[in-house]
Design brief:
This is Myb/SANT-like domain-containing protein. Helices cover 58% and strands 10% of the residues. By secondary structure, the protein is mainly alpha-helical. The protein has one domain. It has a two-stranded antiparallel ribbon. Strand 1 and strand 2 form a beta hairpin. The longest helix is centred in the middle third of the chain and has 23 residues. It starts with a helix and ends in an 8-residue tail after the last helix. The relative contact order is 0.10.
């Protein structure tokens, strides 16, 4: 049984949504968008990567507020 058919069968039996090539394309597109946003944030002064917490930190809240004023897509990362 190929992976596609197995995925359909498991999805149907367990009430899960089957993964399709369109789902994968959409997810990759979304990850690329998120990567671009995070990369841009880290390029700004006052933003840093905290390796122990695996997250972006900001030196001052005002820097974040200023950033999201001109980058509306980044607001979801607050």
């Amino acid at each position: 049984m190929n992976v596609y058919l197995m995925n359909q069968k498991l999805g149907d039996e367990n009430g899960l949504r089957a993964i399709t090539p369109d789902n994968i394309r959409h997810r990759v597109k979304l990850w690329k968008k998120y990567y671009g946003i995070v990369s841009d944030i880290l390029a700004q002064s006052g933003f840093n990567w905290d390796a122990s917490k695996q997250m972006i930190t900001v030196d001052e809240d005002s820097a974040w507020k200023d950033y999201i004023k001109s980058h509306k897509d980044a607001k979801q990362f607050h």
